[in-house]
Design goal:
The protein is built from 1 helix and 11 strands, in the order αβββββββββββ. The chain is mostly beta strands. The protein binds calcium ion (4 copies).
């Protein structure tokens, strides 16, 4: 039973890009849901919505909640929920240009994997893997050429060990 629990919590896939024949995952733009009709909230009462709620019939998520952090009228965080109300995914646009810079994947409401686009070129270059919400492994494309260059493991004290 314990073994099954551990297996079911492992990330959906690992980044195994070590030769040049596999591209790293690309980022997305927040505009992809523009045609759907969300319910909205205007938290700061400036007349523009800053929170959105989409119903999103999908096997991964049935609802998306979005927040406009800098009140420019555009979504900056999208959180995906499954039919039980658990978080499955969170997308974050840190520089407010409309392109997602960080995606966090969740399993049993704990973060299992993060994809980060540190140079905002729409290709993810840092990949983090978590066990029970604690960072265990990091894979980084340091020179943005679509190939992972360094891999780190993290010990129980949170210290980085180069592979
Ligand atoms: Ca915004
Ligand atoms: Ca961005
Ligand atoms: Ca990048
Ligand atoms: Ca590289």
């Amino acid at each position: 039973m314990t073994l099954f629990f551990i297996i079911s919590c492992t990330p959906k896939y690992q980044i195994t890009n070590s030769n040049n024949n596999e591209e790293l995952p690309r980022s997305i733009q927040f505009t992809e849901l523009a045609e759907k009709t969300p319910s909205t909230l205007d938290q700061n009462n400036d007349g523009n919505p800053d929170q959105w709620k989409y119903s999103y019939p999908d096997s991964q998520a049935i609802e998306i909640r979005a927040v406009d952090l800098n009140h420019d009228g555009k979504e900056d965080i999208r959180t995906y929920f499954d039919p039980k109300g658990n978080i499955t995914k969170e997308e974050f646009d840190g520089d407010f240009d409309g392109n997602v810079d960080i995606i966090d994947y969740y399993s049993n409401n704990k973060r299992v994997e993060s994809h980060i686009d540190t140079n905002t070129d729409m290709t993810f270059d840092v990949f983090r893997f978590y066990n029970e919400g604690v960072l265990k492994r990091e894979e980084i494309d340091t020179n943005y050429d679509n190939t992972i260059d360094v891999r780190y493991n993290y010990n129980a004290d949170g210290r980085r060990i180069k592979e």
